[in-house]
Amino acid sequence: MSHSDLYAEVDKSAYTNALAKNSPITKTFFALSALLISVSASTFDVPGVVSFIVPIVVFIICTSLTLGLAKVKTHLYLDLFAYPTFMLILSCIVLALLFGSGTPLIEIPLPWTTWTIFKSGISMSINTFLRVESALSCLFFLVLTTSITDLCVLLRRIHIPQVMVEMSMLIYRYIFLFLEISKTMTLAQKLRLKRSGWLSSIRSLAMLAGSLFIRTLDQGERTLTAMNARGYDGEIRILDDFPSTRKTTLLGIVIFDILLITLILVTTNMGVVL
Amino acid sequence: MMFRLENVSHCYSDGTLALDEVSLNFAQGERIAFLGTNGSGKTTLLNHLNGILKPTSGKIYFEDKPLAYDSKSLLNLRKRVGFVFQDPNDQLFASSVKQDVAFGPLNLGYTSERVKQLVKDALTTVGMNEYADKPPHFLSGGQKKRVALAGVLAMEPEVIIMDEPTSSLDPIATSDILHLLLQLNKEKGITLLLATHDVDMVPLFADKLYILNKGKIVSAGTPKTSFSNTELIRKVNLRSPRIAHLFEVLKKENNLPIADELPLTISEARREILRLIDEACKKAVHGV
Lengths: 274, 288
Description:
The structure holds 2 protein chains of 2 kinds.
Chain A (H helix, E strand, L loop, with lengths): L2 H14 L7 H17 L8 E2 L2 H17 L4 H25 L5 E6 L4 E5 H27 L2 H10 L4 H30 L6 H31 L18 H20 L5 E2 L1
Antiparallel strand pairs in A: 1-4, 2-3
Chain B lengths: L2 E9 L5 E10 L4 E5 L6 H8 L7 E6 L2 E2 L4 H10 E4 L3 H4 L5 H11 L4 H14 L15 H13 L5 E5 L7 H18 L2 E6 L5 H4 L2 E6 L2 E6 L1 H6 L1 H6 L6 H13 L11 H22 L1
Parallel strand pairs in B: 3-8, 3-9, 6-7, 7-8
Antiparallel strand pairs in B: 1-2, 1-4, 4-5, 9-10
Helix pairs in contact in B: 4-5, 4-6, 5-6
């Protein structure tokens, strides 16, 4: 799946998933609290111990909510994980091989020095991997189930500055328009027998970027005119309208968070000791 | 008179004279079409009517008061005179259909409850209520056009101006939009002004037609009288509706006794053909 298709799929999922009509407050509260708790847990920081319980619990719960309850397509979920996981694996390899202190695991003699791989480096690497993947599952739950419109209304409710919410709304709307335009332009370049060499592809890209920039300026002006015609006065007001929040659901999330924190406290120092 | 224009001219900053001494007026409930080639000044003229452009010379009166351009008067004018732009992508800027339609009424300072009702009514009128929570990029061209119209309807205007309402729409979407507009005119008494170069659409829609050429109004009247002046129509690089053209050829080349006012629509053509047959039959009977 190409990058822009992936964005479009994520966007589509946010509107069509089975939880789309649920309150964004509930979904955001759940995702962010689970994220904060799992990332800030001190369990991970014991050197030489791989603490897998909390991150795996969070990961399983978020994933089953996303796939089971919200009915997001499994292949989309996996595709979404693929990019960050690839980067994460590279970083974790570096962490494992070059960081750490204390008890050495392996010592490799090199002509000029000794290369030591530490137990704490390995555990840090695995802990980081688990922690990031569980945090990603929280965020992907939010991203795949909640539409930008709902998030904008929510941001306004918690008094995030107007200008930031307006910008996000406009950027979101026009990203899709310009994705479409740039796709058409790239195709037009290809159809006029764009050469495939590296230098000429850079040149085509520069031309594309240039004309797209001019298009955006032009579009901005026309949109402003159209907004003026409907009485725009410098402030985009947002209709505060989204599904109501059920108190019982919120209570359920609070209980879940408390359980999670308890789990962290109970499992401190527990895990696989290297 | 609802709108009265007196010698309105508009000269763009690059020196193009887009409108040249245009004078016209129209009353409430009329359906008016402005016909002209690309660059004939239709859009420029319409942009003057809700204060997007200011005439470089001449006067515009709305209900016998000259247009004022301070923000309060403009808001008041724009509440009553809605403008639907040619490209709905220019107009739909919000992240969902509902938020976009709510934009106008929210600018008028209505309460949230009232706005919700207006949004719902407007979307129901254009038949897009089930798409209320969808983002604009999910919609087809025709659906975007409907939402753009709903965005204007939600402000409860008395006049709706549409620039090329049917350009880039498929035949079904075109006829849907036309029916919707006619229904709004009939049921709510909304005055409709539209710019177009779709000559076949004009007789179906308008009861008054202005033909523009190079910023000047070259013909004013009903579609019937205007299209009967075939010489003028050709001179300004337009063409007659297909049906009128057919009858013009039949009249000139085959010397059929067709009325001076050429039929423009299918129903008019049907009537004219039946009349011709009827006459021919009578002649045949008397001839024998």
